[in-house]
């Protein structure tokens, strides 16, 4: 299969200049804000986004140096296949975070619920629409009995 290449549409500006201290998930970082700078050639694509309270940000985990096919999540003491985890150390280091859209000013988005490193290339933005996501009988696999006790602490606290 041919290699797939993406060009960033923007960049994240956050307080996290190193991996230590980045929240593990955006749900554990509701009080943290950052900005997404959308490059000029993509600014027109922001039309009508201001009516949404939350957005899904797809970004490159550009600081991941050691991809792996297994991961040992902090919520469980054993290894799992990386595709059964939310580990950033993946063959294709793509991050997906649902964040609150606080404001749009020109081509700059202010967001909260940030779990992204400063300088992360943004690949796409989509409005979050709860009714378009699955509901009902959702299975959580190995996380089923761990989800209530999950610690959303920062990555350096592992």
Automatic annotation (TrEMBL):
Alphabetized Pfam families for the sequence: TrmO_N
Assigned protein family: Belongs to the tRNA methyltransferase O family.
Annotated protein name in UniProt: S-adenosyl-L-methionine-binding protein
Species of provenance: Limihaloglobus sulfuriphilus
NCBIfam families reported for this sequence: tRNA_TsaA
Keywords: S-adenosyl-L-methionine
Signal peptide bounds: none
Domain TsaA-like positions: 21-131
